[in-house]
Each structure stands twice: as C-alpha cells, then as structure tokens.
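Deviation from plan, reported transparently: (~{Z})-2-methylbut-2-enedioic acid complex.
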Amino acid sequence: MAVRKTYNSIEEEILDLKRKRNAVILAHNYQVGEIQDIADFTGDSLRLAQEAKKTDADVILFCGVHFMAETASILCPEKKVLVPDMEAGCSLADMVRPGDVRAWKEKNPDGVVVCYVNTSAEVKAESDYCCTSSNAQKVVESIPADKKILFVPDYFLGTYVKEQTGRKDMELWRGYCPTHTMIQSSAIDVLREEHPGAEFLMHPECGCLTRSMHLADKILSTEGMVRYVQESHAKEFIIATETGILHRMRQQNPGKTFIPASAQATCTYMKMNTLEKVVDALEKLQYEVKVPEALAKRAYLPIKRMIEIV
Ligand code: CIZ
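Because the crystal trials were delayed, the predicted structure below was used instead.
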C-alpha cells in the first residue's frame, strides 16, 4: 500500500502538488482569503485568463466560477484547465442562453451583440464583442454610432455604459447578479452618514446603481477598485461589491479601513471552492473544463476583438 506523505499544513501539501503537476493557481478577487493566499495570481477574470496564456505551466487550476475557466480554456486550448468544483457556476451568466441571443438577433438583424464576460462559451459564440466591467465603455465606444447595440446579460452594467457613452440605440437584457442585489441604497445612505470621510466605490453590477450611481465617488471593476484604493489618499472606503475583494485590499493597504456596503454580498458559487477541493483537484487532476474546438473558435472571436480594442 502506498504511504501517504504527511505535511505540516494543507498549504504545504498544495505547494508540493503544484510542483509535481507543474501547475499554476489562479484566484478570482471574490475567492475566500485562504485561496487568494496560495494563488500565484489573484485578479479579475480577464487578467487571470491572460496570465494563463502567458504561463508555461501544464495545468491551470482556476479558482473562480465556470465561465472564467471556460475563458481560460478558449484562450489556452493547449493547456489543461481545472476547477476545484464543477458546480461553481454564475447565476448572471445563466440568465441568458444562446437561443435567446439568436432570437434577439433575428428580431434585430443589424444589431451588434456585446456580451459581458459573465456568459457561457455558447453565448460568447453568438456575440460580436465581449467586454468586462473595466472595458465595457471602450468596447461600446469602438462600435460605429449608427449601429444598434444588444447588450447581454447584465442590465446594470448596460445601464451604466449607456449613461457614460450617451448611446441611445442600445437595448439591454434584463439579467442581474443576485449577489450584487444584496447591496441596497438605503444601507449605503446609512454607511455614508456613519463614515463621512470614506470614499464610496461601486461595482457597475450593483442593483442599486440606477438610484445610487450619482452618490458613488467611483464606479469601478474589481481590478479598478484594487488599484484605486492603493493610489487614493483616503483612509476609509465603502466597497460595494462581493466581499471577497476586501481580503486583498486589507492585505495590500494595512493602514486603511475597508467597509463592505453589505456583509451579505457573498457569492455562494465563488465560496464553493475550498483548500481541500484545491488539493483534490491537483491530486486527481479534476475537474477539467475544456471548450470543444469548434465552439472555442467561435467564442474566441468576440474576446479577440475586445483584447484588440483595449
Ligand atoms: O471580470 C471579472 O472578473 C468580473 C466578473 C468582475 C470585475 O469587475 O472584475
């Protein structure tokens, strides 16, 4: 019987397995702190997929949710992309299906489909452009003004981009992130009164954005927020997005205080990944996310257009 090696900690076991598998661990900004701490890179989904492309590791363990691993598989078809838990999906991505996009395009044959990165590979394959929350405005601005835009699936990000670009002919799908709807404007009003010196940073997926957009000091993507709090001279920040991001902010800025706009804004899917599942994934080389070649080719086009724009 093979003798199982013993380790002083689970982190030590992960390091050993990572070496054995020639693996790299990527963690999204919304992951639990322990996973961010053992990751080689922490960031937003696009940055992580780009890190995956640069690495010469054979195995990429993507700690995030399913569509993010799909994006890494589309950008790095030659690599083995694993996730710790195959059930870690995205409610927002599930709110639009490829058939919905096809039907919308049939009704709007001249429409240009812009999909948020929070979509399945099948939906990306039906889209003309992809975007993230950090570049959605630039992507939309790059599309000729006489073209009608069909934006999927996030209604609030779409509303923000429409407002920023002044784009009139832009229709929005009515999808939303349930985690970001936990952040409510009444709670923000109270927090702002309690912390008058704090800067208030809001993610554009927030459901209260239509009411509180004008109250935010900045509306930023996760990476935008991480960068902003490092550069700002403020000492206190109210952060309106998934609470996992506070871990990195606190680590990188020990002299500053970060207050979640809602302690309930935690994504159940993001929190399904654990250190134990990371061990299993590296040990058993499970669970692989592989976008089939023909689909990956079609889904790559809108991502490639986005990367060229930004
Ligand atoms: O692209 C990402 O990682 C998401 C979903 C949000 C963000 O603002 O970074």
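Residues 28, 44-46, 117-118, 132-133, 203, 221-223 surround (~{Z})-2-methylbut-2-enedioic acid (CB under 6 Å). We consider this an acceptable substitute for the interim report.
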